[in-house]
Amino acid sequence: MHKLWASTYKEFLLLVRDFGGLAILFLMPLLLVITITLVQNDTFKTLRETKITILLVDNDHGKVSKNIQENLKNSPLFEVQMQASEASVKELVQTGTYQLGIVIPENLSKDLNLKVAENVEGILEKFGAEEERIPLVKSKLEPKEIKLYFDPATQFAFRNSIKSGIDQMVSKIETQTIYKAFQEELTDNPSEDIFDTEPFLLFKEIVPSDGEKAIIPNSTQHNIPAWTLFAIFFIILPLSINMVKEKNQGTFVRLRTHPVSYATFLGGKTLVFLAVALVQFALMLLVGIYLFPLIGLPKLDVSGKLHLLFFVAFFVGLAAVGLGLLLGTIAKTQEQSAPFGATFVVILAALGGVWVPVFAMPKFMQVLSKISPMNWGLNAFYDVFLRNVGITELLPEIALLFLFFVVTVVLSVIYNERKNAV
Amino acid sequence: MESPFLNEIRQLPSPNSSFASSYAFMIQINKLAKKYKYAEGYSVNPLDLTIEEGAVFGLLGPNGAGKTTLISMLSSLLKPTSGSFTIDGLNYREHKNELKQLIGIVPQEYALYPSLTAYENLSYFGSMYGLQGNSLKNKILDHIEILGLSKFAHTKIVNFSGGMKRRINLIASILHRPKVLFLDEPTVGVDVQSKNVIMEYLRQLNAEGTTILYTSHHLNEAEQFCTRVAIIDQGSIVCKGTPKTLIAQQEGTKNLEDVFLAHTGKALRDHA
């Protein structure tokens, strides 16, 4: 026990003597979580508040195109800038000057009205003139294309959401034109409302809760757990570099001649770096609670679940330390441990669902994600932050994280024994 | 006030007294050999060697002769390919931890934490030998005083000169009073004053009963310091005995360096 304490104290001294390293260890994760949350929050804001400029070419000059223009102008998402020709839109969007261009075809209003009128007449004749049935003449009108130009650099999700928004808007205009055509056919009074054109089907988002309190997920509630986890796992870098340094400066070789086990050597590092992970976590929470509201970000809600959060962070920290110990045991140089460690954490994060939700991944990747400790950690954090679960529901993920720590430490000891022991 | 540790040192019996254990030899090496993976030949050919308790045994040889490999095997750093050895009667395979408690290793490199102070380094390495509390503290302070570093006990190693680091390197290996001390070039790269202090202290340790196995390229130093020497070349011992005997046995030699060159030749031994 005394040897473990002495090892821990030595690790503590090595850590606090390296001011630069210490600052990086604690400040960089904070910087990371603040930056990511600001960026993601701003992306939502961009879509909600800051309008995206749409280049619009109106070749129709009719009621429908005017309606489209009005809808776009009234939309909180877009700002319309008229353009004279399709060619200029093509060029401006292709070069990335603007992200989106819409070209409304010629005679859109005229043809849409014709098409609708034709259909309405056909229907009315079917119902009103059963005896003297006139065969319905099929329209020769071609479907009209509203062209959308996207900057090639825009992301797939962005394109999809814009396409879906425009599609909804055009469908609404088309529906209203149909209602209007019916109204014109059925009544002579244009101010008489025959149809209620307001949507009948509405969506309401219900947040699952245990009945006590529903948490409305926001960018902070999503980002703090995801990026805290990412930052905690980045501890494998300083930890493995610390171990490689010991090998290179000869102190590890000296230790191997001492009557002390490798497990004790790893134990000292585990205790100190686990403490670092927990301090990192505490700082992240403090930033989410106190700093975020000051810089216009949603406040992190931790009420009533602080103990569960630290419970999860403890085991996430253990898993990260275990991985760092294994990497530090195997790596011979800093050139091996640093790039490998950094890349590996990014891979684990990607697999774990830090960037793309696991359900949105291909099947094969979903299977792989199940073996990522970051996935277990992220699920456990989301369980506490967003699903309001108790300790029992957390146990499967906690058990996996602890098992991961045990396996990595056992592998480290075995590797060291095989490599070095007499 | 005089430290209790200095009294402890004074009260230790000499190597010739009843301090000697029931084993005639402190180190007994039996057909010990090492062949590295992927190497063509053996770095240390199967060799037999015995070192008496209380001896200062010099292991001399050109670069790549197998000295460090042999010491690494004896100090549990390298697994022998074949053969065996005992230290103070303990077999290395069966008594790994007890054997580690018996020995001290002064490596050629400064195996110290640069950002820790001399005291913190020694406290850590002493703790790893099971020392603790006031006993550890007193031993550190006493050794630091003997080796002239009291003023620098709380200075970081990174600010030490080569000679100062060498002395701390030595203290880190002897805090637990090992029965056998392995010294791998203990005075390389140090000034004359530091070298003198180190050698004096090693003599004192030996006088107090510590058996020393020593490697060096300073043959003059070895001639003065060692009670017995073995010259090793290409993994095999080519001659052994007291320095005086070896000089007398080899015709036309005046000192150990002449004997060394006579046995190992003058060809350069560069290797990578």
Secondary-structure blueprint:
The complex is a heterodimer of chains A (422) and B (272).
Chain A: H1 2-17, H2 19-48, E1 52-58, H3 63-74, E2 78-83, H4 86-94, E3 100-104, H5 108-128, E4 147-150, H6 156-186, H7 219-233, H8 236-248, H9 251-256, H10 262-294, H11 306-330, H12 334-352, H13 363-369, H14 373-385, H15 391-420
Parallel strand pairs in A: 1-2, 1-3
Antiparallel strand pairs in A: 3-4
Chain B: H1 4-11, E1 25-34, E2 44-52, E3 56-60, H2 67-74, E4 82-87, E5 90-91, H3 96-102, E6 103-106, H4 118-128, H5 133-146, H6 162-174, E7 180-184, H7 192-207, E8 211-215, H8 219-225, E9 228-233, E10 236-241, H9 243-249, H10 256-264
Parallel strand pairs in B: 3-8, 3-9, 6-7, 7-8
Antiparallel strand pairs in B: 1-2, 1-4, 4-5, 9-10
Sheet/helix structural class of chain A: mainly alpha
Mean pLDDT across all amino acids of chain B:
83
Largest sheet of chain A: 4 strands, mixed
Helix content of chain B: 25-40%
Q: What distance separates the N and C termini of chain A?
A: 24 Å
| Poorly predicted runs of chain A | none
The CATH architecture category of chain B equals: 3-Layer(aba) Sandwich
Judged by helices, strands and strand pairing, the structural class of chain B is alpha/beta
Question: What percent strand of chain A?
Answer: 5-15%
User: What's the shape of chain A?
Assistant: elongated
Task: Provide an overview of this structure.
The complex is a heterodimer of chains A (422) and B (272). By secondary structure, chain A is mainly alpha-helical. Chain A has 2 domains: 2-43 and 217-420, no CATH class; 51-186, D-Maltodextrin-Binding Protein, domain 2 (3-Layer(aba) Sandwich), CATH 3.40.190. Chain A has helices at 2-17, 19-48, 63-74, 86-94, 108-128, 156-186, 219-233, 236-248, 251-256, 262-294, 306-330, 334-352, 363-369, 373-385, 391-420; strands at 52-58, 78-83, 100-104, 147-150. A 4-stranded mixed beta sheet of chain A has the order 2-1-3-4, with helices on both faces. Chain A is elongated. Chain A starts with a helix and ends with a helix. The model of chain A has no long low-confidence stretch (mean pLDDT 82). Chain B has 272 residues and is of the alpha/beta class. Chain B is built from 10 helices and 10 strands. The model of chain B is unreliable at 1-23 (pLDDT under 50). Classes of the chains: A mainly alpha (422), B alpha/beta (272). At the A-B interface, helix 1 and helix 9 of A face helix 3 and helix 4 of B.
